[in-house]
User: Fold this.
Amino acid sequence: MTFKELNIIEPLLKALNEKGYTNPTPIQQQAITPALANRDILGIAQTGTGKTLAFSLPIIQHLHSQKADERVKGIKALILTPTRELAIQINECLNDYTRYTAIRHAVIFGGVKQNAQVAQLRAGVDILVATPGRLIDLINQKIIDLSQIRYFVLDEADRMLDTGFIHDIKRLLPRLPKNKQTLFFSLPCPRR
Assistant:
């Protein structure tokens, strides 16, 4: 199977081809088609199997396929992750995948001054990659509005819950629109 057979649009195929990606991994094969059909997903796969591409490609394709005059202002996709290292890594992947689209994305995380992150948000963002603490902080400052979110990704969901982010997630969920696509990705449970 190829990405073209998964009905991926040409700008994304071009970006994938430049990365040397022609055949989807098993998690990508299983997740992309249902995600393109706007179904909620629970994806479980080992690290390094392509989960980031599995959840980001359908989101980028949906956003790119909307006509410019139909686009709603504001953040449309939120990717929540437990660490800044993972947030940065996902944002770098988005750089590659959105290369031939007009999709704008940003990453926010704590441990650094927020000025540059806020400036990028104010310039306009379609996809936001965030860690919970900085996200909640910027929501409380009324810098981030989640009312336009159409796609919500919880990456490394198992780790988020194991490391005590459950309270942050419980605070965030009521702020998200009810009508959204939800994509949870996790590692398999270790065998005992």
User: Anything to note?
Assistant: Residues 51-65 form the longest helix (15 residues). The beta strands are 41-44, 77-80, 105-108, 127-130, 151-155, 181-186. The longest strand covers residues 181-186.
